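Shipment paperwork, digital attachment
Item: protein structure file
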Amino acid sequence: MESAETTSINRRPWAVLALTSLPTFAVALDTTILYVAFGDLRRTFAGATDAQVSWVLNAYTVVFGALLMVAGRVADRVGRKRLFLWGLAVFTASSALCGVAPSYALLIGARVIQAVGAAVLLPTSLALILAAFPTEKRPIAVSVWGAVQALAAAMGPALGSAIVQTAGWRWAFYVNVPLGIFAAVRSRSRLEESHERSAEQMPGPLPIALAIGAPGLLALGVIGAGAWGPTSTLTLASLVGSVVLLALLIVDTRRARVPMIDRTLFADSNYRTAAWGVFVFSIAFTAMFFGFILFLTRIWGYSIFRAGLAMTPGPLSVIPAAVIGGRIAAKRGHKALLVLGGLLYAAAGLMLLLEATPQPEYLTVFLPNSIIVGAAIGLTFPSLVGVAVHGLSPDRFALGVAVNFAIRQVGSVLGVAFVVGFVARGGTMPFAGFRALVIALIAGGLLTAWIGSSAQTRPGASLGPAKSKASAVGT
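Attachment content:
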């Protein structure tokens, strides 16, 4: 695809990184922060059922995952700065609406709007960062940006429990407002516009609808299975519909003159490696995240607040690992980081398998394990993003990031489904279920390391469509 793209290296790239990372920290935080507020929400909206209140959490996940690809495609076309500021305004205003919502129905509606802004912010933020940094500095910038997302998601339970305990669930939304206003004011003067100047048209309404419907129905089916039942008509219709729409989207990508997903993305072996890696590791990460909360509260008997505090040290090792990893990646590529990160993740799981018992042993078992897991996340998630964008031309930054994160959302939804369907049925977690979870985490870490060994991002490495272990699995 021939295109021209307007971009110039920003004279203050680190300012761009800080400004764009601030709101995306809030975006990632809002995917997990409310999971510790369910009881508080239930008491506020006493007339609503548990299933109804659960959609305060789930509506954000469904809409966010569904709109990522479309947002990335539009951003490359109309301008990354313009769409970033628009998404920031929507996300900030809807966060305020969430905080003042008088009913669960209005809160769900505000969460849907918030997810629209979030889906716009995520791909545009990294696209702006990539355009601002010179090529040799991008691995470091991507590592820091990816670490911010991983840190926010991992901090969700701890920060959420602290906010809910001290100020109430509404402040979980209010905290986004000053961050959003500050970022918007500063971004107008600090960010530089970049976009694709191509003569091609945007995809038609049908492929856009397919790109929204396929991931959206998948998330709806997996999440709804808990409320409707895994064999209910609504659940099965959502899952089957997702498969059908995905198949149609693949056909459109192969045949359309202007496809929704640029078919050349997956012609690059690194992009395929990153796609498979982020899919596998997202399943393992999300399953771990929800599984550990259940382990601490249902087996060790911790309160939600205490469980959140217990998980706090792990995220603290994410940033140092990511920063060190980014410097290594800039000189030697991402392969060693992905292999090491996957193996560390598997080792942490093996440690729990051998040492964890139904009796609490926080200082000797869970604490060192969480620090190892945090380091593994800091090495792995940012490196997967770095591998994905390594071979992208500037005109495909936002779309490439969006597709990668859409795959990550699908993996996250499946991780939740694994815990709910196979590990913690009925909301309980027997110790045998926890051991099954840990075995799955070990497998996820090992598979991520194997996939990551295919990365070819060492400076000077070829970027062509060479075959890789990940591509051998399929495209």
